[in-house]
Amino acid sequence: MMTLLAFVLTLAVLIVVHEYGHYRVAKACGVKVLRFSVGFGRVIWRRQNGPEATEFTLSALPLGGYVRMLDERDGPVAPQERAQAFNNRPLWQRVAVVAAGPLANLLLAALLFGAAGWIGSEEPKALLGTPAAGSLAEHAGLRAGDLVRATSLDGQQWDEVRALSELRWQLSAAVADGRKLWLELSDAQGHGRRSVMLPTDTLGGGELDAAMLRKLGFGGPFSEPLLGRLAPGAAAEAAGLRAGDRVLTIDGIPIVDAAGLRERIRAAVQPDGQPRLQSWRVERAGQTLEIEVQPKVVDEAGHAIGQIGALVGGPPELVLLRHGFIDGLVHGVERTWETATMTLRVLGRMLIGQASLKNLSGPLTIADYAGQSARAGLPQYLGFLALVSVSLGVLNLLPLPMLDGGHLMYYLFEGLSGRPVSEWWQRQLQRIGALILMLMMVLALSNDVARLAGLH
């Protein structure tokens, strides 16, 4: 239910803001607006203050909206109203009306990013856990307990990193751009500073999803190798382990964090598929104990892994991220610009085959992320809403017929040639644009289904 409500709210906010941008600028330019609709299809609610006023409607299919303006191309217009027809307004006003929708989405995104910064949130510190075996992070020499202090795309100009979310943002930008990323590291106390280079340019671009994070080697934040709640009768309880035990070694191998502990437990499977008996050394109430543990073998996506039936890992160290009013606004504008340019670069790389088409997401993925972010808290949901608003703004500015960007291309032609695009050409381009958009929607929906099925 939370996912559905968050998704509906996301659609409602973004659609209303986008269409209000068109509506507000149209009214300011003297264009008569006949209808402001949220959704398509059968009208289920309407309101109109008078026969000459704009009709506001809510329609049955809420996947979009539109603003219908007086226009001689749609039907006859009374002589006294011709000056209010959209097609009779000066070129610069038509450009302003069309561009206002996407720009409203970008403005909304900046305000939402800023609001999330004003509210603030406690987030895991950029203290790294054990990198995944064979990952870029492992090959680069990153270790459990490394604190990422700053990042750089050129090894010269550095950006401070305060939390794991900021590190992931920089990783996302580097992967999307197909560029290397330098990290400035130290231990948790700030000693032993060094820098390493991650060859993120070798990953082929794309979205920083769970699969990409595994390739990079970045999982969750650093977590102490502590045991939490034990499942009754499971392997951990049967071996005599207790909640609060700190694991020091397994089979003589030091355990430095929860990620390393999980890997040792998962690897406790012999070649014949039987569980491997492990020798654990744990610290309990100041005493060191030797305990024999035999994890249970279970199947996970076709692979045999070990499990002990206990929560693994202590809580991560948190930092408070919060901006003042002016800093929040600046942060919102910067993050909107970075997100918009990153989106365009990924689209461009997809167009020339340098990034996978799997990066296209549709309504199912948006709904899933909406629910996850809403459950995480208000700042996280506002940030998600801002990201989707940027995506909507950028998508609508693409020079495709049927989108706002396509109409802006018509007006660019009109401005350069002194004559509008002919109706015949507009009809042909509309057909091409509709086909392209339909293919994009089918691809995005198929990617959604594949993600939910665990195929991506």
Automatic annotation (TrEMBL):
Topology with respect to the bilayer: Multi-pass membrane protein
Enzyme class name: hydrolase
PROSITE patterns found in the cross-reference section: PDZ
Cofactor(s) the record lists: Zn(2+)
InterPro entries registered for this protein in UniProt: PDZ, PDZ_6, PDZ_sf, Pept_M50_Zn, Peptidase_M50
EC numbers on record: 3.4.24.-
Predominant subcellular localization, coarse grouping: membrane
Homology family: Belongs to the peptidase M50B family.
Protein name stated in the entry: Zinc metalloprotease
Native species: Roseateles violae
